[in-house]
UniProtKB/TrEMBL annotation:
Pfam hit, one: AhpC-TSA
Originating species: Vibrio agarivorans
Protein name: Redoxin family protein
Membrane-traversing stretches: none
Domain Thioredoxin: 7-166
Length: 179
């Protein structure tokens, strides 16, 4: 049985970087501008039509994330040229990063798949993961899947994040009991 390292809720989010299309480096989990939290969406890559659909859907919830003080970043293990090609099918204004390494995928604890053929893609790739990092750099919300069909419903996610972020609710990080 293979050992799998899964990040636990409440853990410090690891310091990992990827590259944006403009060539600049981005640190996963570090919010930009006025946001104090960041939602890091790990996606499979250009070869996945469900990823294209989901990334475009995230764009339609961009304001709801912003209203909750949550920045958005999406990242895959694709190459720069794969992300450039994929961008032609995307209508998003949040940052997309490429170059997530297999070692970084293992650090995040996402499931990793082998391509079914060279036509699918030319590298092992991460299955979907969502990591919401709070202002203390802790993993506040985590959701990982072993296939592209199971991902958080974005309306429920953004409403939940707004509720969690409301200081009147005193909502702690859930799922922290060790066993």
């Amino acid at each position: 049985m293979a050992y799998s390292n899964k990040l636990k809720a409440g853990d410090a989010f690891p310091s990992l970087t990827a590259t944006l299309l403009d060539g600049s480096s981005v640190t996963l989990g570090k919010p930009r501008k006025d946001a104090t939290w960041q939602a890091v969406f790990v996606y499979r890559g250009k070869h996945c039509p469900l990823c294209t659909k989901y990334l475009n859907e995230i764009e339609s919830y961009k304001q709801a994330f912003a209203d909750a003080g949550v920045d958005i970043l999406a990242v895959s293990g694709d190459s720069k040229s794969q992300l450039e090609q994929h961008s032609e099918k995307l209508d998003v204004s949040f940052p997309l990063a490429y170059g997530l390494t297999e070692e970084q995928m293992k650090t995040l604890g996402v499931y990793i798949s082998l391509p079914r053929s060279e036509q699918e893609t030319d590298h092992n790739f991460a299955e979907p993961g969502l990591f919401v990092v709070n202002e203390k750099g802790q993993l506040h919300v985590v959701d990982i899947s072993n296939n592209p069909f199971v991902r958080p419903e974005l309306g429920a996610l953004t409403r939940g994040l707004a509720w969690i972020r409301d200081p009147n609710n005193h909502y702690p990080i859930r799922g922290t009991l060790d066993y």
